[in-house]
Amino acid sequence: MNITKYVLVLLVMPFLFGCNSDDYQYPDKYLPNYNFSIDIDMSLPLYTPLQFTANPVYIDQAGIGINGIIVMNTGGGYVAYEASCPNQNLDSCSKLAVDGIMAICPCDEAEYNLFNGQAEGKEYPLKPYRIQVTSGTSIRVYN
């Protein structure tokens, strides 16, 4: 009987620990998941702030994210987040405002740090998007 339990545990272990960190699924309680992709050429004037650390750029191009995206150079790489409040239903006040290295939700005044996407006392962090550096001055943001 004990051998059966051990065999069962060994068979289940790969399913429990076989997940890749790339497979992270952001909870979609408030924010739906829309597929998009954008190539950003940082040599263009609109995106040159991304060549320097802690200079976020808000991109509100149609079809990119829900309310657009916020992209920032962290000094160790790039991050991209959805520009919608992650702890609020989509509403007229759920579009984030960028203030320096903080993104502020007008609905509840929550302040999210753009280096890590976290806000003190909030259930969900900012919704992250994937980044791929395609050349020295170009990146691709997608989900």
From TrEMBL:
PROSITE patterns: PROKAR_LIPOPROTEIN (PS51257). The keyword Signal applies. The keyword Cell inner membrane does not apply. Residues 1-21 form the signal peptide. Keywords: Signal. InterPro entries: Rieske_2Fe-2S_sf (IPR036922). This is Rieske domain-containing protein. It comes from Flavobacterium suaedae.
